[in-house]
Amino acid sequence: MVHEKKLVEDVSGWLRLYDDGSVDRTWTGPPEVNFMVQPVPPHEDFKDGVATRDVITGSQDNIDHRVRLYLPEIKSDEKEKLPIVLHFHGGGFCISEADWFMYYQFYTRFTRSARVICVSPFLRHAPENRLPAGIDDGFSTLLWLQSVATGTAKEPWLKKHGDFSRVFLIGDSSGGNIVHEVAARASNIKLDPLRLAGGIPIHPGFLRSTRSRSELEKPQSPFLTLDMVDKFLGLALPLGSNKDHPITCPMGVNAPPLSKVKLPPYLLCLAEMDLIIDTEIEFYEAMKKEKKHVEVFVNKGMTHSFYLNKIAVDMDPDTGAETDALIAKVKKFIQQH
Fold first, then answer.
1. How many angstroms separate the CA atoms of 2 and 288, rounded?
2. How do residues 149-201 score in pLDDT, each as one tens digit?
3. Contact (CB, 8 A) for 280 and 268
4. Which pTM does this prediction carry?
5. In CATH terms, is domain 42-336 a member of 3.40.50.1820?
6. Given the residues 96, 173, 212, 305, the one annotated as active site
7. Shortest CA distance to 331 belongs to which of 187, 323, 100?
8. 209 noted as active-site residue
9. What's residue 2's pLDDT?
């Protein structure tokens, strides 16, 4: 007799978990936005001023670990090497890929505008790989960059054009959590000749087990609903944990004291109408209390991960203008550090 698998969890059209442990990440929401979650093949020829390629950084348990590279076309008068931005994608630790169109459209634009090389690892997903798996992947990518800097690993684009003394971590949503965790881990080791110059968490998934006021009052959006917050983290956090875990609540009592963690300068990017802005601000206030170098930038009237929504960026003047402002602010932060 063939066992018919049963649905255990359905998360807002993004993910379905079955009783045999299998996971279906096929998008089942509105079909008109399906193109944003489709993979974009790499292209080593320059398109709109940017080339991309996927690189295997290592293998473990017969699984290849990959990164996607974005290289802007080098200008004839560009003499200095380019900062390297290590990007961690979001998705509640459970969904999304580094090659999805929503990331491709933003990071090609960002790479071209900010004059940086972007390195975006393909992170393992929960629930098949619960945390800290995704953070381990992010940190191992930083160590791979160090090995390229020392010459023990080969990557021609980075070696020829990358400035390893100016490496920045950037991540959206749960990727913002990875920014903080990787930065904290990096403080315990020597990265020479690589230098971690800054961290840029964008709309990070900093939360606590009790609902914040913004969770109760701010609008839900396709990129963040309370259903996603609760279910994704229930699938991603270590068994027996809740949102007070240090990964999701780095400003909480269960986390290592921020006073004892050596961190690079941070640019914390927030959206005024984000469901979780209150707890993100709690993190900012905790950092300021410990006299950490952190500045905050807020996009007015915007919701969680608004800049990844290509339809809104193109069709809504306010979203387009706020995306421009976000890119300009991050670019300035990188130039200053």
1. 58
2. 999 999 999 999 999 999 999 999 999 999 999 999 999 999 999 999 999 99
3. yes
4. 0.97
5. yes
6. 173
7. 323
8. no
9. 62
Rounded to the nearest angstrom, the gap between the alpha carbon of residue 321 and the centroid of all alpha carbons in its chain is: 22
Angle 317-336/101-114 helices, nearest 10 degrees?
50
Amino acid at 171: G
Q: Report the C-alpha gap between 82 and 74 in whole angstroms.
A: 9
Number of CB atoms found within 10 A of residue 31's CB: 8
Annotated catalytic residue, options 245, 274, 278, 305: 274
Q: What is the mean pLDDT of the chain?
A: 96
Catalytic residue among 12, 87, 304, 305: 304
Cβ atoms of 217 and 228 within 8 Å: the answer is: no
Lookup: tokens for 47:
């398109």
Residue by residue, DSSP assigns 298-329 as: EETT--TTGGG-HHHHHH-HHHHHHHHHHHHH
Clarify whether 274 is annotated catalytic.
yes
Length of the chain measured in residues: 337
Asked about 43 being catalytic, the answer comes back as no
CB 57 within 8 A of CB 65: yes
